[in-house]
Design goal:
- The chain has 377 residues and is mainly α.
- It has two domains: 171 residues, no CATH class; 193 residues, I/LWEQ domain (Up-down Bundle).
- The protein contains 14 helices and no strands.
- Helix 2 packs parallel to helix 4, helix 8 runs antiparallel to helix 9 and helix 13 packs antiparallel against helix 14.
Length: 377
């Protein structure tokens, strides 16, 4: 297997229209997180936004695992998924004040979303005792986490934050426990679903760039900053979909037994998280670049831009390493170089900083494309 597979991958089960409908709620959720960070462009705001995005991602990912097994043709599954959408819509709507007055609404709807997904998987596992056994390695802790989130909503300030971080830790422990089981996975569908969430995050970056354009006068400089910000989104798309996504999917298709489930957990559920968070942080910063291209970014927005791009690259590097056991050094060097700009470019204009970031990532991807295939050891 290679980082640049040339043979077409066989098509398997495709994403259903109901799953795409389900995704629309999370499009709104990602937009709400971006708006929350824009309203509180501090390091604390960036941290809170990232935590909420993590919760949204984890909930969405659980449904990807579930529908990958159950499909969406069964009436009970359809109705459960639609019910979960309603709860997820309430959860997304409560994002804006999840750390203030809306904490109970966010946490309770989050719990309902998680109960629905557990019920769906339980229904689907009736036809396979092996899958039901696999589910039981994961479900108890997975249901405990949203209960902890609900408990945390009854506290204020730092205490709520700490309790919600604890809930994330419990979710991670549930994922680790799931590695003891053998999960039946449709690789093509699973990879497609995760790629679609990356597209949701990238879509938010395009929206943010457009919003930034409405906040400034229509001058020639606006066109230049728009193109630069769009180029940033484009290289992030290229870095994920051009080679890495296909290489990771190829390994998932070749993996067997417990390794397939563990790889899906590691490369997708866990290592796609920094990719998604990084793109959303980039989106928030890109809006600021377009709105104020001739000014230096604040330390927080500079951090969002360069660390966001760095997270995307490092997430892809880690997922690729998990697949081929080799490091895509071009991306690693680019990630380090971009993150260093947080310390070296304090007084650089926003549009110039964006141009440097695009240049670094673009050169790394171009250099990687010139490399020969990297075979699995």
């Amino acid at each position: 297997m290679t980082l640049d597979p040339t043979e077409a991958l066989l098509e398997e089960k495709s994403t259903s229209y109901l799953e795409l409908f389900f995704d629309l709620v999370f499009v709104f959720g990602v937009t709400q997180v971006s708006a929350l960070v824009r309203e509180d462009p501090t390091f604390a705001g960036l941290g809170r936004g990232s935590l909420l995005l993590l919760m949204l991602w984890w909930s969405w990912s659980l449904y990807t695992w579930t529908t990958n097994w159950t499909g969406t043709s069964n009436l009970g599954i359809k109705l459960s998924l639609i019910g979960a959408m309603a709860a997820a819509l309430v959860m997304a709507a409560a994002v804006s004040d999840a750390f203030t007055t809306g904490g109970i609404w966010f946490a309770f709807s989050h719990l309902v979303v998680r109960v629905f997904v557990g019920a769906m998987y339980w229904m689907g596992s009736r036809r396979s005792s092996a899958q039901r056994a696999a589910l039981m390695t994961f479900l108890p802790l997975s249901l405990l986490a949203p209960i902890v989130v609900l408990a945390g909503a009854y506290f204020d300030g730092t205490t709520r934050l700490i309790v919600w971080i604890l809930a994330i830790v419990i979710d991670m422990l549930s994922a680790a426990s799931a590695g003891r089981a053998t999960w039946e996975i449709d690789p093509g569908h699973f990879a497609e679903r995760n790629g679609l969430f990356v597209m949701i995050a990238l879509g938010e970056s395009i929206v943010a760039i457009g919003i930034g354009a409405t906040l400034t006068d229509r001058k020639p400089q606006l066109i230049a900053s728009l193109i630069l910000a769009f180029a940033g989104a484009a290289v992030l798309w290229w870095s994920y979909f051009e080679r890495a996504a296909r290489a990771v999917e190829e390994y998932l298709k070749k993996a067997e037994g417990q390794e397939r489930g563990r790889f899906a957990r590691d490369a997708y559920t866990i290592l796609h998280l920094p990719i998604v968070i990084g793109i959303v942080l980039f989106a928030v910063a890109a809006e600021e670049v377009v709105a104020h291209p001739d000014q230096a970014l604040s330390p927080e927005m500079r951090f969002a831009l360069v660390v966001g791009v760095g997270l995307v690259l490092l997430g892809i590097v880690a997922a690729a390493y998990r697949a081929i056991h080799q490091v895509p050094y071009e991306r690693m060097v680019a990630a380090v170089a971009v993150v260093l700009l947080a310390f070296l470019a304090a007084d650089v204009r926003a549009d110039v900083l964006m141009a440097v970031v695009v240049l670094i990532v673009g050169l790394a991807l171009w250099r990687e494309r010139l490399n020969p295939r990297k075979e699995v050891k």
